[in-house]
Amino acid sequence: xxxxxxxxxxxxxxxxxxxxxxCIILRFVWYCFIRPIGxxxxxxxxxxxxxxxxxxxxxxxxxxxRGRRTLLNLSAAHLRELRKSHPGERLVWVDIGxxxxxxxxxxxxxxxxxxxxxxxxxxxxxxxxxVARSRFAKRxxxxxxVLCQDACDFYLPEWSAKGVNxxxxxxxxxxxxxxxxxxxxxxxxxxxxxVLSPQRGLIGVAxxxxxxxxxxxxxxxxxxxxKECGWLSRWFWQxxxxxxxxxxxxxxxxxxxxxxxxxxxxxxxxxxxxxxIVRIPYYVWLGRPRSCDVSKFCHAFEVEGGNMIGNCSPSxxxxxxxxxxxxxxxxxxxxxIPLNKERASSNHxxxxxxxxxxSSFHYQLKxxxxxxxxxxxxxxxxxxxxYSFTWEDPFDDMKHLQLTGExxxxxxxxxxxxxxxxxxxxxxxxxHCVDMNPCQGHLLELKLASIQSxxxxxxxxxxGEGRNANFRYLLDSKISPYMSSxxxxxxxxxxxxxxxxxxxxxxxxWALRVAKVIFKLARVDHDVKRxxxxxxxxxxxxxxxxxxxxxxxxxxxxxxxxxxxxCWNALGVPMNQRQMLLDEGGVYEYVxxxxxxxxxxxxxxxxxxxxxxxxxxxxxxxxxxxxxxxSGFSALKANDGKALDAFxxxxxxxxxxxxxxxxxxxxxxxxxxxxxxxxxxxxxxDEEIAELYRVMQPGGLVFWRSAARKPWYxxxxxxxxxxxxxxxxxxxxxxxxxxxxxxxxxxxRAMKMAAVP
Length: 757
What we know:
Layout: H1 9-34, H2 42-50, H3 57-61, H4 68-85, E1 92-96, H5 102-108, E2 118-123, H6 126-139, E3 144-148, H7 157-161, E4 172-176, H8 185-195, E5 202-208, H9 217-223, H10 231-242, H11 250-259, E6 260-271, E7 279-289, H12 295-304, H13 394-401, E8 408-412, H14 417-425, E9 430-434, H15 438-453, H16 456-463, H17 471-479, H18 485-493, H19 506-521, H20 525-531, H21 537-552, H22 555-561, H23 564-569, H24 575-583, H25 587-601, H26 609-616, H27 630-641, E10 647-650, H28 654-660, E11 666-670, H29 683-695, E12 696-706, H30 714-719, E13 722-729, E14 746-752
Parallel strand pairs: 1-2, 1-4, 2-3, 4-5, 8-9, 8-11, 9-10, 11-12
Antiparallel strand pairs: 5-7, 6-7, 12-14, 13-14
Helix pairs in contact: 4-17, 8-11, 14-27, 15-18, 20-21, 28-29
C-alpha cells in the first residue's frame, strides 16, 4: 500500500531542510526587494526593513558580505602586536553597526573576547540588536554591552559611570558593512578619530564601494591595487544599492583614507550568485590615527634610504628627539637630504590635517623594511616576479666579500636568498636591496615577515617544500603585521602560489615546468630523483651522462634555448646578455660548459641546492639555502629579528636609488649580471657606474658576474677610477665549475681607489 502513496513519509523528512532554506530565501527576497518600507527617518527604515528577517540575517548574508573574517584576522594580528609593547593597557572594542553580533562571536574564535576589558556593539536597529542580546546571553559574556544608539553621536557608559576621558579611550573600532549605511559619515569618522587611542588605536572597515580614477599617484598608492571600478560598475552598483538606502559614493572611502593613516588595504570583487557576471566591489581596510608616531619610518626612508616618496609635507623629516633611542645614528657620510635643524616642541605643534596622509608604508606597525614607491608605467611589464629563487652562489661571494658587521651593502633583490645569506654569515649593518620589479620586493618582504612571525616548520613548508595549505590563514593572522600594504595585497591576490608548488610560479617557474615535461616525455623522471639522491659524485656523473644529459641536450631543447622569447620569459635572460654569450660561442657550447662541470664537482643531495631545486621543484632539509636551515632561520629570528633590521627594500632603478644615497656610505655592492642587460656603449652604464663611485667608500668593493668572459663595461669601471680584477673566469672548454651555479662565464671585482689629492 505504501508504495502506491503519492508522497512517501521519508520524502517529507528529507525535504524539510530544503523547504526551510526556501522559506529563508523567500523571506530575504520579500523584505529586501518587494515589501515597501514606508518610513521616513533612518531608524524607522532600519527597523521596518529588518524586523521580519532579523533571525535569518546571518544565514542570508554569508555569501554577500565578504571580507569580514579577513578583517577580523587582520585586526587580531595587529592588535596582538600592539599589545606586546603595552600589555597592561586597557583594551576597548567598539563595533559600530554590528547588528546581530555576528562579528563579535566570530572574533572570539580568533581573539578571545575575554581578553577585552570592554566590548560595545552599537547599532540603531532594534530587531537586529535583539538577536545580538540573545546571542551574547548564551555565551555568558559580561564584558559585552549592546547599545541602541546613533553611531554619529555614540556615547559609551564608562565615560560617565567611570569618569573615563572619551578622547583616546578606545583601542579598536570596526565598521563591518555599516559605513555605507550611515548618512552622516563625516561626523562619524571625526568622532572615531577623537576617541581612538592616538598611538595604539586601530580601525578596521569592510564594505562595498565604488571608485573612479585616482587623482594622484599618492592616493592611488594608498587605495591599493584594483581599487578603480569601471564606469558601468560604478553607475550600476550605486543605483542598485541606493534602493536600500546604502550609499556607495566614493566620498566615504575617500574621507576614511584621508582622516586616518592606512595600514592595510585590499580590494576584492564579490562574485555573488553568478560569479562571472555579478562582481560587487568590496574592500577590507585597516588604519590608525594620523597622529601616531611615524618618526622611525621617516628616518629609515628619508635619511637612511634617501626616499621622500609618500611624504607630502612641505618640509623634510625633522631629526628624532634626543630621547628616542629606537633609531640608530646616521650612517657614514653626510645626508643628501638637508635636515631641518629646528625641533618641534611636541607633536601638537605640527598641523597635519592640512596635507594628505602619509603613504601606507609610513603607518606600518613593525619594521621599516620596504621603502615607499608609486606606481610606474614600467611596473605593468611585471605581472609577477621573474625569479622565485636566486641563481647565484652566495658561498662563493662570501669568499671574496670580506664582510663584517660594519659593512653597508647594495645588492639586487632577485628572490632575496643571497641577501639573507649575507645577513646570516656576517650580519652587515645595512643591506640595500634594489629591484625595479615590485613583485621581487613583495617576495623578499614575505620572506622577512615570515621569518619574523612564523615557526620554522611553517616557514620551511612554504619556501622549502614550496607548499602550505594554510598560507591564507598565516598571511592574515600572523605575517600581515610585518608587511607593507602593497606586499599584503599582492599575496592576497596570489594566495594560491603555495597551494601546490611555489617554485613553479613566476617566470622562472616556466623553465622548471618545461624541464618536468621534458623529463616525463622522455620517461626519465625517475632518474631525476635518483640523481638527486646520489651519495657519490661518481654515481651522480654516471646517471647524468647515461640518462639525463642526452635528454636535456637534445636538438629540440637546444633549439628552445636559442629562442630569445624563451630565454627572457623562462630564464630571465635579456637580448643583450644573450648576444654577449653568442659573441663568444654557441648556445650548445655554453650549456655544456655550464652543466658538465657542475655535475662532476658538487653533490646535489647535500650541497648544490640550486640544481636540486631545478630538478625536483623544491628543496630538501639536507640541500637548501642557508636561510632555510634551522640554524640560519634561528640566526635571523634571534633577538626579535635583529639581523633583519639591516634590510631596506627599494622599488626603483639602481641609478635612482644610488642618487638618493649619501656619498661614501657603501662598502660593498653586488650588481649580479645586471650590466649585461645594457647595449654596449650605453650612457646609462656610465651614469650608473659614476653613481656607484660616488656612494662607495675608498676601498669599497663592487662585484658583478657576466655571460661574457670579458664584459665590455669593465673598461667603464676603470675609466671612473675603479681598479678592476677578475675573481674567476671560465675556461674554454670549461673543465671546472667556477662556483656551484656556474651559469656565468666570469666574475669580477672593482675597488674604489682613493682620490689623488
